[in-house]
Structures are given as structure tokens and as C-alpha cells.
């Protein structure tokens, strides 16, 4: 026999799916909490902003998290969510989660990034991401700059030393030569990626490679 909670769950789910049609490939993603990005976490900035917006009943503050083309959908989902969450605690919880999922999904779409669900609160984040948030809170970026530059410098030096060591023996035998080439490619591509990101040319570089043209770096 179906209990009261099951009936409530199905009723809210049907209401959401009827009132807010979605692409069939994006339905039910709120049932798959697997993702690896800062804005996809339950304690990330997007969900935090969504919680405040729902409590205040004002969608305006969260519109900055989505591109202009997704604003109509967010407004519609927000309005329906407010209607459904008034039906009780269980309905509120389900409706809120549905809204969080929709908002984060569209935010990620605006970044041309994949989305597979919300990551739990308290999940491990990259130290640079943590420091980036702290920098904004403190109004100082120095700790973040030190963290990133120290890490980058260490990475360059390690790959450089490895490549130099392999280069010393590159002409001794074929296998040694291949080991040098492998170290060389890793070293050069590492600094290339860093420089492209630093100069803002990474996206353009990726477009060139995607179009089948040669990238900026050419082996000599």
C-alpha cells in the first residue's frame, strides 16, 4: 500500500514536470548527485544565493548567475517552485532541490561546462578555489597569488629538471631518446598551457585545435 509520503513525492514530482517541461536528456538529474565543480556544490555560491532568493521570494539576485537567454526559464521555474514549496515541508524540500538543480545546470550551460548533478556540501575543493573565495571575502588576493605562483614555479622546475636529465642521455640509445621526447613534450606543453591560460588565449587555442588546425606550439 502506498504511504502518504510516497503520494506527496509523486504529486510534487508530477506538478514540477507538468508545469516546468524540460529537455528529456536533462530530466531527473537532481537524483544523481555526482559532479566536480565549485558552483555545483550544495554549499557553493550559486545554491547559497538560490536559498536566499527562495526565502525572500525574489528571483532578481540570482539572475546574475545565468546568461540572458536562460532568464525566462529561471523566472518560470522560480515562480512554480514558490507555489509547490508552500504545500508542506516535504514538498518544500523537493521543490527547492529541483530549483537548485535547474539553476546550477543553466549556470553551467552558460559556462559551456558539463553538469551531472549537485555535489554534497563539505566536499573537497581545490586549494586555489578555497583561496579565491577567501580572497574575495578578505578583499586581498596576496595569499592566492602566492599559492598559485609557488605551485606553478614548482611544476615548471620539476619538469625542467626531469627534461634536462633525460636530454643528457637522449643520444645513447633509442629508448633513452624516447624518454627524453616524452619529458620534453610534458615540459613544453605544461608551460604552454600555463601561458595560454595566463594570457587568456586558451579558448582560442582550443578552437584552433578543434577545427583541425595546428596549435600555437610547434615542435622543432
Write a structural description.
The protein is built from 8 helices and no strands. The longest helix has 26 residues, at 142-167. The protein has helices at 4-19, 45-56, 71-85, 89-110, 127-138, 142-167, 174-199, 202-210. The model is unreliable at 1-37 and 211-216 (pLDDT under 50). The termini are far apart. Helices cover 63% and strands 0% of the residues. It is an all-alpha fold and 220 residues long. It folds into 2 domains: 4-110, no CATH class; 127-210, no CATH class. The chain is elongated and about 75 Å long.
Q: Summed up, what is this model?
A:
With 220 residues, the chain is mostly helical.
CA-atom Rg in angstroms: 24 Å
Low-confidence stretches: 1-37, 211-216
Shape: elongated
Kindly report how far apart the N and C termini lie.
73 Å
- Number of strand elements: 0
Characterize the biggest β-sheet.
none
Count of distinct structural domains: 2
Order of helices and strands: HHHHHHHH
The helix fraction, in percent, is 55-70%
Output the number of helix runs. Answer: 8
Assembly type of the chains comes to: single chain
Proportion of strand residues? under 5%
